[in-house]
Every structure is written in structure tokens, then in C-alpha cells.
Amino acid sequence: AFYAVALANALAGEDLDPPGTSSTDPYDADVDIDATFADDDNLIYYGTDGNVPAGKYDFASTVMHELGHGLGFLGALTVQGDQGGYGSCDPAFDAPFIFDRSTVHVTSSTTRLLDYACGSTAMGTALRSGSVFWDGAKGVAAAGGTRPELFAPSTWQQGSSYSHLDETVYASGTLNSLMTPIGDAQEVNNEPGPIALGILAD
Question: What pLDDT is recorded for position 20?
Fold first, then answer.
């Protein structure tokens, strides 16, 4: 499985890509987390007091959300057309992310998403079923013993589907809403929440 660089470094106890070892891309050299943010004073509130004016978005909450992805709250599974998979589905070149190993599709039975064939319509259907959950022990414990629900709408939303907690289950402004796909205007959430922490711990 592939790991987020920051997570791989933490698990290894060392910088696996120390300065001076990256080869050709000067924008990606030796970076653990890379994120780009809009710069618009009309839309973004840069204060840290939580008093976000109407119609503006809290910058600190947005940064916290993206850091969560950079630390490993991110899966490789995606849908193209009707097929679900990761990369080219060629095990000689591609692998799922470690996140993907703890996700399940729950219907009348429970199926690990990676048990579906990579590049299959079965995986694509599962990823758009509204029934995708986290099955790691620490994430489940943080959710009170039930599997946390991931965002899996019937229409695949690139960049939002799968690698977030479900937007309707963990509503805006609640304890576990930081890692949902939509940050609302005036929403302030500077805590990852116990479920996101459990998922990252898994």
C-alpha cells in the first residue's frame, strides 16, 4: 500500500525523503504536505478568533481540513465511467493507499472495497452506494462502536467522494464535521474530531 509521506515518515521515525534527495521536480522536492489555498479577502476570514463574518469562510478550518488529508485521511479509490479502481489496476505499478484497506461496503453483508476487482463495475457501484464505511478498530471505537460513514453519493464527486466523512451524518458545526467534504460559510472547526483521529490512528 502507498502511504502519505508525512505518515510514512512518522512510522519510519525518520525523513524518508531528506533534503537534496528528490530529483527533478523543484515544487515537490522534500515536501511532506503540499496544499494551495485561494487568496480572496472578500471570501476568506484570516482571523483566528472564530468570529467569521457572514458570507466568509474560515481559513484556519480550511487549513486544518487539508492537513488531515496530508496526514493520511485520503484513499486512492475512484470511479471513472461506471468502473471503480485505483491507478492503472496493474499491481506491478500501482497499489491502493493504506486508507483503502479499512473501508467496507455494507449491504446485507459486509465486503471490503478492495475485495472487489480493481477496474470493475462492482467496485464502481459500491463507491456510489451511499453505504461505504470505515472499519478500522480505532475509528469504530471513536464512533461509539459503530462504523463511521464515508461520503459516497450516487453520483461520483471527484475530490469529495470517499475520502471524507459523510456530510449529512456529521453535519456542519458538529464535533466530527471537519473532515466532511463541504465547509460552510461561517463554519469554524479547528478540532479534527475523535472519528478523524481514530481513522488516522488506524
Answer: 66
Strands 83-85 and 78-80: antiparallel
State the pTM of this model. Answer: 0.92
Beta strands in 15-141 (DSSP E): 44-45, 57-58, 78-80, 83-85, 103-106, 110-112, 132-134
For cell 479547528, name the residue. 190
CA atoms within 13 A on the CB side of 184: 11
User: What's residue 89's pLDDT?
Assistant: 93
Q: How many residues are listed for the chain in this entry?
A: 202
pLDDT for 22: 60
Nearby residues of 35 by Cβ (< 8 Å), 6 or more positions away? 63, 66, 67, 70
